[in-house]
Design brief:
The complex is a heterodimer of chains A (290) and B (422).
Chain A: H1 4-34, H2 42-60, H3 64-89, H4 96-119, E1 134-137, E2 140-143, H5 144-166, H6 168-176, H7 180-185, H8 190-215, H9 227-237, H10 242-262, H11 268-282
Antiparallel strand pairs in A: 1-2
Helix pairs in contact in A: 1-5, 1-8, 1-9, 1-10, 2-3, 2-4, 2-8, 3-8, 5-6, 5-8, 6-8, 9-10, 9-11, 10-11
Chain B: H1 2-28, E1 38-44, H2 51-70, E2 79-85, H3 93-102, E3 108-109, H4 115-118, H5 122-127, E4 132-134, H6 141-144, E5 149-151, H7 159-172, E6 180-186, H8 189-205, E7 208-215, H9 223-232, E8 236-241, H10 243-256, E9 262-267, H11 273-279, E10 287-290, H12 303-314, H13 327-344, H14 349-358, E11 360-363, E12 366-369, E13 382-386, E14 403-407
Parallel strand pairs in B: 1-2, 1-3, 4-5, 6-7, 6-8, 8-9, 9-10
Antiparallel strand pairs in B: 10-13, 11-12, 13-14
Classes of the chains: A mainly alpha (290), B alpha/beta (422).
Chain lengths: 290, 422
């Protein structure tokens, strides 16, 4: 069954969904893609961000996105602290490959259990004026609970991209995994730079978490569902490429939405991961990798 | 100096992690005390995807244990619950039940919550010939055919099709009756079974299935699915979904403006207080399964006293504050075990099993009688319609008339608003 309206709806829904995927994957693209840190706990930090938004929204009626923004610096410093522990315990001893992975698994479980102990296991949601509205543009629907996260995601990408590409520290973050020695010759401390980069990666999860809870209700372990998705986007993007992450997320979002609309939702994950496999076969460095 | 600082930092970190681990251990396993008690063991989803319901069930079971011990126990012995967190992970279940039986030496085992966590315990229970009261498994015994399996969810003797029987009964009673149906469900155990049953019934009734799809459980946006359903213009839409998907589906149906005449069926989560308050008026018109709602036809003896105790015990624990869905049944499956032990007058599983197969039990969820396959002898999956919801306050959902019972006939408490789209 095909109609132009259906196709336009699928494209719009996919674009908005892709924007959300991009927000959730951005931090991982920095930590995994640019810093070579396999932060398997990334989705758990996103859920932590969701709970921060929930807490402020349910207790004081504050806007979840503003809360996400306000807590971004807090998450940045949490990221800095986590990296410091990771560095001292594993990276400094060249022991990060397997034990580092186990460390982030541990961090993920600690976050989950901590959230269960504080908030319990019930599903949590937020209220905001833009949740539940739907704009109609001809035959195309634009749900505001997806449109607002999409816009926030684009702004977050722009901010991170500008910082990484226009500032000395930003360029140092992009260089640190490639050539530590060259970075040291430029009088930059690689550990401090990675600490900064990891902090930015975790900082983005505060806002990404707020976007997540706008879209779906959350419980402490729901982040596990998204581990595969966020790593797939980071790899498809070409490890470390910020524009690549946005494009890869949009490609997966649109592919899922179009396939779901015209061929059935059961095919959507297969097609999305099929795209990843094809990209890896013909362009192993990813869409924007060098 | 620097290295001393680091040592101190990591020393205290180690201590903190150790302390956290100890707290988790205490929180997840009940203390086992020696003495002449009746020990009832089980695994329960206290973390993971089903923990929301699992923790609520545990509180209900603890309320039951307190009630029984307050009246002097069973056969004069106090009861003690021994439980472990199965993490909503079926792989943990065989180990938990083996430990319960061989190390903790419990007298009885009952199941944790949900089909996926009941099935892995069955071989162990069957090997030892134990009675096995089960909590909310859908058609688990179809393959095992174990005669000491007793499942408390009121799905009925043919659970796969009985589950959605009410949805179709309501649909076909409308004038004119529907001709086309869309089926959609999550690609996971319960939802697959629910949709499979609905598909069989739809085919028997001669309904044309215009959409029949499953989706991945991590689907975040349901607009493409609802748009695709809308394009096929079905008269009715049956959904088998889990809590986050149910929310996504309802939001997408509202945003897209789904024009179906009947929408709902097997959506898990719409019974939970947190989700009802999140969706508020968007729920109006949906016809969905339920097991207990505060309607006058369902005021069974003891249910309100139980709910009052549960609601007090659940305060501040991050679980469903109302406890209407699973909790009365978690209390009831232990009531059944209690009454069967008392009637048998011994701890002999064969005797107790025989009594459970033959007798009818009085519980907080009404009279319970089991069919030979261990399911309820007669289905009582309620189909309720959300009506007149104007806000998102918790108190709204405690009122009579917000979830009107439309099926089965003997429990009906109101009339349907039809079609859904209006």
């Amino acid at each position: 069954m095909f109609s132009v309206d259906l196709l336009l709806n699928a494209l719009v829904a996919g674009t908005l969904l892709g924007g959300f995927y991009a927000a959730v994957s951005l931090g991982l693209s920095v930590s995994f893609g640019q810093l070579n840190i396999v932060n398997i706990a990334h989705p758990a930090f996103v859920i932590l961000g969701s709970y921060v938004a929930y807490m402020g929204n349910s207790r004081w009626g504050l806007d979840p996105i503003l809360l996400g923004l306000a807590f971004t610096p807090v998450f940045f410093f949490i990221g800095v602290g986590v990296y410091r522990v990771y560095y001292e315990s594993f990276e400094r001893k060249d022991d990060e490959a397997l034990r580092g992975l186990a460390f982030f698994f541990g961090v993920m479980f600690i976050i989950e259990v901590g959230l269960i102990m504080v908030y319990g296991v019930d599903f949590r949601s937020v209220q905001a004026p833009y949740i539940g509205q739907n704009w109609k543009l001809g035959g195309v629907g634009v749900p505001t609970r997806m449109f607002v996260p999409f816009c926030v995601s684009i702004l977050m990408f722009a901010a991170v991209y500008l910082y990484l590409s226009r500032t000395f520290n930003g360029r140092a973050i992009m260089a640190v995994a490639q050539d530590r020695l060259a970075l040291q010759l430029m009088a930059a401390d690689p550990v401090r730079i990675k600490q900064l980069g990891f902090g930015i990666g975790i900082g983005t999860t505060a806002l990404a978490g707020a976007l997540l809870i706008i879209i779906i209700p959350i419980e402490p372990s729901i982040g596990r569902l998204y581990i595969g998705q966020v790593f797939a986007i980071a790899v498809l993007a070409g490890l470390g490429s910020i524009p690549g992450t946005l494009v890869a997320a949009l490609v997966l979002g649109i592919a899922e939405s179009v396939v779901s609309t015209f061929f059935g939702p059961s095919w959507a994950p297969a097609v999305a991961f099929g795209i990843l496999l094809l990209a890896l076969a013909f362009r192993p460095q990813g869409l924007f990798g060098r | 100096m620097k290295s001393f600082g680091k040592k101190r930092l990591f020393g205290s970190l180690k201590k903190s992690l150790g302390a956290a681990a100890a707290v988790v251990g205490v929180a997840l396993a009940s203390p086992v005390q020696a003495g002449d008690t009746i020990k009832i063991g089980f695994g329960m989803a206290l973390t993971g995807g089903l923990a929301g319901a699992g923790k609520g069930a545990l509180i209900a079971m603890q309320v039951w244990a307190e009630d029984v011990n307050a009246r002097g126990g069973i056969l004069g012995k106090p009861v003690e619950l021994v439980y472990y967190d199965d993490q909503t992970n079926p792989a943990t279940v065989p180990g938990i039940y083996t430990k319960l039986l061989d190390v903790d030496e419990v007298d009885f085992v009952v199941s944790g919550y949900g089909t996926n966590l009941i099935a892995p315990a069955m071989p162990i229970v069957m090997q030892r010939g134990l009675v096995f009261p089960a909590l909310f498994g859908l058609a688990v015994n179809e393959k095992f055919k174990y005669d000491n399996y007793f499942q408390i969810m009121p799905a009925g003797p043919e659970p796969m099709t009985d589950w959605s029987r009410g949805f179709f009964s309501i649909a076909m009673a409308q004038d004119p009756p529907p001709k086309t149906i869309a089926l959609v469900g999550a690609d996971a155990e319960f939802a697959r079974n629910a949709v499979k049953g609905a598909r069989e019934t739809a085919e028997k009734l001669g309904l044309e299935i215009v959409y029949d799809e499953s989706y991945h459980p991590r689907t975040a946006d349901f607009s493409p699915i609802v748009n695709a359903i809308q394009a096929r213009n079905p008269d009715i839409v049956f959904v088998g979904s889990y809590p986050p998907d149910s929310v996504g589906m309802v939001k997408a149906a509202t945003e897209v403006g789904l024009k179906a005449k009947l929408f709902g069926g097997g959506m898990v989560g719409l019974q939970f207080a947190s989700i009802m308050t999140a969706l508020g008026p968007k729920l109006n018109g949906i016809v969905n399964y339920d097991f207990w709602v505060p309607e006058p036809t369902l005021r069974f003896e003891g249910v309100e006293e139980f709910l009052a105790k549960y609601q007090t015990a659940a305060e501040g624990k991050g679980v469903d504050p109302l406890g209407y869905y699973l909790q009365p049944y978690a209390y009831a499956y232990l009531q059944v075990l209690d009454q069967a032990i008392t009637a048998a007058g011994s701890m002999d599983h064969a005797e107790i099993g025989k009594h459970m197969r033959d007798a009818e039990f009085d519980t907080v969820v009404g009279k319970v009688k089991f069919a030979p396959n261990g399911e309820w002898a007669k289905t009582r999956v309620l189909m309720v319609q959300y009506q007149g919801i104007e806000d998102s306050e918790l108190a709204t959902f405690t009122k009579q008339g917000t979830r009107v019972v439309l099926y089965p006939n003997e429990w009906v408490s109101g009339t349907i608003n039809y079609p859904y789209a209006e």
